[in-house]
Amino acid sequence: MASLIRAVFWLSLGTYGIMRAAADCGKVPLFQRIMGGQNSTPGKWPWQVSIRDAKGTHFCGGTLIDNKTVISAAHCFSNTNMVQLPVTACLGSFSLNQTNPNEVCVKVKNITSYPNYTKDTDSGDISILELDKEVNMTNYIYPICVPVSGLTFPEGQNCSVTGWGDISFGTNLPDPRTLQEVTLPLIAANKCNKSYHTYAGGAAQAEIRNDMICTGIPQGGMGACQGDSGGPVSCQKDGLWYLVGVVSFAAGCGLPNRPGVNTLVPSFSDWIVQNDPRASENLRPAAATPASEASTRCISSLLIPLSLILLVTY
């Protein structure tokens, strides 16, 4: 009888752990180089995913939204000649070139990209990655909340961009390739569009649409770069972290008047749930809260004329 009670007790704990992931998405269990960024801390961004090719090489970021689903950018998988299959999603990753007991790597079973995305800078640069098996939630592996369709986040709110991309154009993140983070304000699509049509030393222009959102500062020096594509723009409201953006493209890395452009996730929440019903468990509304007062810091960048680049590493 005692054995039966213990079995029921442990089963209940397991069920609680699964339910907790749905009930408490967007929380950081341990805490109740991005260009111009700084080293992160293990477990600080437990939804961050490293997407790797058949050789185990990181080429894009991703975001865990439930125990079997990762969100990334469609352009990461648009060129199958460049991406060596099968693709693997590594969760709990921190320093890519060091052994990590908290890391779990799972093969990607299926990739569903937004059907209207056909070329660079299009709307809908977003993909759903179905993992080959469910992953257990830990202090280092935990889903972020998905914002309900139509949920708005105020311009100027400070959010976090994370990834293992280059630290400047053409300069790889140095060993041991530790996860980078940077705090940047959100920029509304219409304002971002004006920036992208302002002359900036020959840097490329682009049309920024309403289903996109930008992150950056006018003087540049901070932002996503190659290898950060598909990673999260994480914003906090009412104590929960939301996946507000998916890193998409930029004109160079951290150039003045060329902020990072991201897919605006609330515009695609319904599509996500249609293709991944379990994501509805972590779909959340939220009331607006004041922008974070988190500090930012800037470093100099190479101000050279550049074409628009997708922030993927091959």
TrEMBL record:
Coiled-coil zones: none
Domain of life: Eukaryota
Any one GO MF annotation of this record: serine-type endopeptidase activity
SUPFAM superfamilies named in the record: Trypsin-like serine proteases
Keywords assigned by UniProt, alphabetized: Disulfide bond, Hydrolase, Protease, Serine protease, Signal
Keyword Membrane: no
A GO BP annotation: proteolysis
Signal peptide residue numbers: 1-23
InterPro entries in alphabetical order: Peptidase_S1_PA, Peptidase_S1_PA_chymotrypsin, Peptidase_S1A, Trypsin_dom, TRYPSIN_HIS, TRYPSIN_SER
Gene3D superfamilies, per the entry: Trypsin-like serine proteases
PROSITE patterns: TRYPSIN_DOM, TRYPSIN_HIS, TRYPSIN_SER
Domain (Peptidase S1): residue spans on this chain: 34-277
PANTHER family in the cross-refs: SERINE PROTEASE 33-LIKE, TRANSMEMBRANE PROTEASE SERINE
Protein name per its UniProtKB record: Serine protease 33-like
Organism encoding this protein: Xenopus tropicalis
Gene giving rise to this polypeptide: LOC116407688
